Amino acid sequence: MSTPPKPIALPVTAVTCLEDRAHIERTAVLDLEAGVQRLRLGPVSALAVDRTLHAELTAEHSATVLDVRIVRTWTPRGPLPSADDDSPLRLRTQALEEERAALGRRCDRLRARLDLLGRLAADLLREIGEGVGYGEPERPRWSQELDRVDAERDTHGEELRAVEARLVVVEAELGDTKRAMSLAEEEPAELVGHVELTVETAAAGPVALRLSHLTPCALWRPAYRAVLDGDSLTLETEAMVWQRTGEDWSDVSLTLSTARSALATDPPRLDEDRLALQDRSAAERRTVDVELREEEIGTLGPVPVLGLPGVDDGGETRVLRPPAPVSVPGDGRAHRVPLTAFTTAARSEYACSPELSPLVTQVVRCDNASGHVLLAGPVDLVRDSGFSGRGTLEFTAVGAPVELAFGSRDDYGVVRETEESRDTAGITQRTVVTRTVRLHLSRFSAPGERGDRLVTLRERIPVSEVSAVEVRLHKDACSPPPDGVDAEGIARWDVALPPGGRRTVTLVYELTASSKVTGL
User: Fold this and answer.
1) 31, 208 contact by CB (below 8 A)
2) Higher pLDDT, 79 or 425
3) Are 66 and 201 a contacting pair, CB within 8 Å?
4) pLDDT digits over 242-255, tens only?
5) 173 contacts 181 by C-beta, under 8 angstroms
6) How far is CA 134 from CA 120, 144, 145, in A?
7) From the CB of residue 226, how many other CB atoms can be counted at a distance below 10 Å?
8) Whether pTM exceeds 0.85
9) Residue 466 above 90 pLDDT?
10) Which of 464, 478, 452 is nearest to 520 (CA)?
11) Would you give the DSSP letter of residue 479?
12) What is the 3-state secondary structure (H, E, C) of 256-301?
């Protein structure tokens, strides 16, 4: 059974891009004859995974796929360009090759001439010997002939040495030119794959073919662009797609998925966790050991990943699709693919947490109205002055609040001061630790600036988890009292600052511990 030498085109029509690979779908309509025949389709990417190759036929009559496989071959180098399209390197190479051939022919002629002159000198010396033997010397003629032969031998010998020296220079330059041309112009042989499909049909006619396979060297990551315009925020969702599969994706139906087909499906192994009871000693019953620790407030969503993250989907496979067909060249570069965009009302505030940073940052909040979850990824921040920086968007469910920081404000300054005093109260021997935090807030305004600006200050108060330690806020000593304290111990002040204004906020709280407590 013969295979047609000319392959049938099998273009890419749909791509499902996963976290580290792509699922490629190709479709074509084949005009088949009745019986069994073998077809050559392609070319296709040589990186296609053979074990994932799958072919389906759809026809009005019976059609069966008997065998499908990928055959890879090295394509030869392309033909040389025409003389009109020759590059300077090729023209120089041709000139050097012509000069080398001419010098070679000149060397051959000079060597033949010198050989002939050598035989002529030998015949002349033999004639001189014979003439002397017969007693018929011809000294003037012999001397003239010997001088003429020696002069020609010297002349042609010098010319041969010059030609050989020039030939060495030309060969060295020709070698350098060819190496430069091979590095700059000649393309190496390429590994190309073709699909060999063996089918059996009951009757002749058109048959629709659908072929799919996995291909590595393709991935995608989410990216965003946030544009702040007054009280409205426009959030554009995009996908950064990279692929170097060896072929271009032209006007394909692209699907972006967070499925991880490479991960094992086995459940995690369960290890034993044994708990043992032990009686406390008398010293342990008399004391309560406590310590201060930093605790990050947890939120819904996946755990952040340091370095280059994967696609965080919150434990559930997410699927995104662009609204129109897209084209992604196989050059290995990042290409932006627009997905969705929405505009919504935004709430903006100038916030500062002096314990973490002395900078006042503009924080913008809105609700996720995109209709799909927002995966964690970088976001380009744009406001009135143009591009203002790049931030990070956390995993956000549909309708959940989105929080973006649009950079710090240089016209604010915050200084934080802390004081601590320790005392023992009376007969109970309770330890009282009083802490005072002062926040000095300043606004540096340009001449002619009008209007107050609201700045939100946040300072944390320790939260006790044991009854032996109590934390109490002294509202009377605070100046001014906090506008609110949440369950996590975060105190908040909304401070209005006029142009060039200054304010000082004072927070006072105390930790009271019984005599049994140690570690404070």
Assistant:
1) no
2) 425
3) no
4) 999 989 999 999 99
5) no
6) 21, 21, 20
7) 22
8) no
9) no
10) 464
11) B
12) EECCCCCCCCCCCCCCCCCCCCCCCCHHHHHCEECCCCCCCCCCCC
